[in-house]
Task: structure prediction
Amino acid sequence: MTNRTAFITGASRGIGRACAVSLAEAGARVAVAARSLDQLEALAGWLRDHGREAFAVAIDMSNADSIKEALAKTAKDFGHIAILVNNAGITRDGLAMRMKKEDWDSVIATNLTGAFLAIQHVLPAMMRERWGRIINISSVVGEMGNPGQANYVASKAGLIGLTKAIAQEMGSRNITVNAVAPGFVETGMTEGLAQELKDNMLGHIPLRRIGRPEDVAAAVRFLASEEASYITGHVLDVNGGLHM
Ligand code: NAP
Result:
């Protein structure tokens, strides 16, 4: 993927950051996007210090105008986007019976609608170039369900459906669209969970460890590579065997 431009949402920390580092190591020019511009500038500076090409851009995935602006700015100042990693995601957990509509709306807007809008914006250039890689970060719970996360699970299952629909629409244009479904990964998103819950989870993971952001990044890097050119519409589980 040397010299191809990759745009990674939610790259300020966690899995997105690991994806940016891994894609940069593989030779991609990486545009790192999230709301926290300071963290993105620090990451981009660190990547440039290591001889990579990096571009930091603010984006709010819950805001259609912000998505449009960030992608347009990146394409103009850094080059057309060949690889899109829809990684930004949030949780607003609660039992469905008591879930506030705003918590439903904000999770669907950020995790699912934002990803769809980003895909819409990058497709024309990918179609022109007859080359593209779209990778959506779903979740094991999008496949299994999870109590207390109806909004999040719906968004992650939605991403799987979105992946398959766009894969079918874009196959003839040499654009592959895949999802990665991480299991339990040690990041800011999971650090607040009770130790008891984490210990219980470990008992259900055949590989007997919690995932690292780099485990997910390796899958993303593969799906973005030339070697993955005959894989589309696939959901790649990176979950230590938690769900098979
Ligand atoms: P994280 O550490 O909480 O990071 C989330 C990232 O998303 C941050 O960079 C955050 O940056 C960004 N983000 C949140 N809201 C945003 C918005 N409105 N606009 C733009 N960026 C936004 O979470 P993570 O664990 O790395 O998760 C990354 C992805 O993996 C998510 O889609 C998550 O659902 C998925 N996942 C995680 C796990 C896990 O166990 N950790 C498991 C399965 C799937 P700013 O706050 O700077 O905007």
User: Anything to note?
Assistant: Strands lie at 5-9, 29-34, 54-58, 81-86, 132-137, 175-182, 235-238.
